[in-house]
Amino acid sequence: MSSKGIFRLLFFGRLRDISHNIDENQAIKDEIRSIKDLTSWLDAKDPVLGKELVKPFVLVSVNKNIVKNDYIISEGDEVAFLPPVTGG
Amino acid sequence: MSSKGIFRLLFFGRLRDISHNIDENQAIKDEIRSIKDLTSWLDAKDPVLGKELVKPFVLVSVNKNIVKNDYIISEGDEVAFLPPVTGG
Amino acid sequence: MSPLKVEVRIQSNDFDIEMEIENLRLDLANIGAIVTFCGLVREFECNEAGRNLDVLSKLILEHYPGMTEKCIEDIVKEAANKWNIEGVIVVHRVGTLNPNEKIVFVGVASAHRLEAFRAAEFIMDYLKVHATLWKKIVINGEQKWIEPKSSDHIKFQSWSD
Amino acid sequence: MSPLKVEVRIQSNDFDIEMEIENLRLDLANIGAIVTFCGLVREFECNEAGRNLDVLSKLILEHYPGMTEKCIEDIVKEAANKWNIEGVIVVHRVGTLNPNEKIVFVGVASAHRLEAFRAAEFIMDYLKVHATLWKKIVINGEQKWIEPKSSDHIKFQSWSD
Questions:
Q1: For chain C, which residues lie within 8 Å of any Cβ of chain B, measuring from their own Cβ?
Q2: How far apart, in whole angstroms, are the C-alpha atoms of residue B66 and residue C49?
């Protein structure tokens, strides 16, 4: 497993409550290159969390911009899983 | 000319500016029974004012309720000519 | 359903919107949304084509005491027949106002925002064409009564479409 | 046309609407209309069928610092592309709130009321479904994340119809 840099992994709302065992600093590696890879890796690590991440309306942002599943993570990126918002 | 009681005659907005020579207390008489009579009487007395009173959107109220031209004025009524409103 | 709370005031002095809202909320339960409208004296009066006329120096507002309040209360009741609203405050200033001063305030409290938005807009549209208030402007030392805007009448009509 | 004045603040403390409006009006010329929306913590949370659930004891609001402000600024810019508006202030509170406390404020200043009404409603609708804010309620000592309302998504969609 070759590390290709560290990225930050954040969870908000209900997702944060069930992701306390996931470290905020994660390494880019062969199994974690795209957002899709990251979701699969998290699902393998914690199926309860993994199930929540693929629910409808859960979005992923990188550096505070919404991205698609095929986004390739770079060193220093801030990746966040965002459950459906309920502001206002 | 037999007096059948006194009513109050008010003008608002632009109509007030051109009706200063009209007394606020007026007597109900044979020529002034309905609102229509009153308008005609005012027109005969002051054609400049009379012309303004029949312009579109000029309303007449009696005791603070909008009335039609055929309303018969009673003693003690408060009759008001209301030019188009411009509040807000 | 609780009865509608209505307050209508015609006054010459200014008002504080935070205080009006606190007043509106008093004794009302489970309010989720408050929509307010505040009208201000604009520095330029525009004609119907939208072109700026001269700079305004004063606005003079006149009302028909007793009738104006009644007109506005009727408008508020009509709004309450159309939408679920819990409370309404309308404050309209009269007398001489300078540019940038507040003229009118409408505050609507409701459980939900959609109804508060609709009711506030309806009350303002209705007030513009039905409340016995008259505006005179002072421009270059000359007084001139304002003509009603046809756009206000058209906008008001749209509520019954 | 003057550039749009935009202020977006996420804060835990309360706000004074009169002061927010004065702030909004500062440096803006020829404003004729200010429309504000203020959202409050309701004492009862209703389910989608509109039935009251238990009495709420607390509301906890969480945001994504930096991103939430950016989301709201984007919404305001989109509103300014649709309507002629001169200034917008949005204040959203986060942290722990009690029933009847203010949560959110939207103030829109414009020359004309129609544009201010539309823009304020649009910003609120958009904020409800697009700004990264999450609500948790505390009922009978238990915390529960609030589910998004399908009605909010439907109302938001109606702007593109």
A1: 39, 61-64, 66-68, 70, 92, 103-104, 124, 127-136, 145-149, 152
A2: 32
How does residue D161 score in pLDDT terms, banded at 50, 70 and 90? low
Measured between beta carbons, which residues in chain D are less than 8 angstroms from residue A17?
145
Task: Name which of C121, C109, C114, C111 is nearest C34 in CA terms.
Answer: C109
Please name the residue of chain C whose CA is at the shortest distance from the CA of residue D37.
C35
In chain B, the N- to C-terminal Cα span, in Å, equals 45
* B18 close to C (CB below 8 A): no
Q: Number of folded domains in chain C?
A: 1
Asked whether residue C140 carries a pLDDT value surpassing 70, the answer given is yes
End-to-end C-alpha distance for chain C, whole angstroms: 28
pLDDT, mean over chain A: 94
Whether B and A touch, i.e. at least 3 CB pairs below 8 A, reads as no
Query: What ipTM was predicted for this assembly?
Result: 0.92
CB atoms within 10 A of CB C72: 29
Q: Which two tokens stand for residue B65?
A: 């309720």
pLDDT 10s digits, A7-59: 999 999 999 999 999 999 999 999 999 999 999 999 999 999 999 999 988 99
Percent over 70 (pLDDT), chain B:
97
Which of D47, D31, D6 is closest to D111 using CA atoms?
D31
Q: Rounded CA gap, D70 and B41, in Å?
A: 68
Domain annotation for chain A: domains and CATH numbers: 6-82 (3.10.20.30)
Contact A10 D64 (CB under 8 A): yes
- Find the CATH number of the domain harbouring C113: 3.90.1170.40
Q: What is the per-residue pLDDT across D36-88, written as a single tens digit (0 to 9) for each?
A: 999 999 887 655 555 666 677 899 999 999 999 999 999 999 999 999 999 99
Q: How is residue C83 annotated by DSSP?
A: S
C-alpha span between C36 and C63 (Å, rounded): 22
d(CA D148, CA A83): 10
Q: Read off the pLDDT of residues C74-98 as tens digits, 9 standing for 90 and up.
A: 999 999 999 999 999 999 999 999 9
Query: CB of D82 within 8 A of CB of D118?
Result: yes
Q: B54-75 in b/e burial notation, b at 16+ Cβ within 10 A? A: eeeebebbbebeebeeebebee
Q: Which residues of C touch D40 (CB under 8 A)?
A: 25, 31-34
Domain that holds residue C154: 5-45+52-160
From the CA of C65, how many Å to the nearest CA of chain B? 9
Which residues touch B72 (CB under 8 Å, ≥6 apart)?
B33, B34
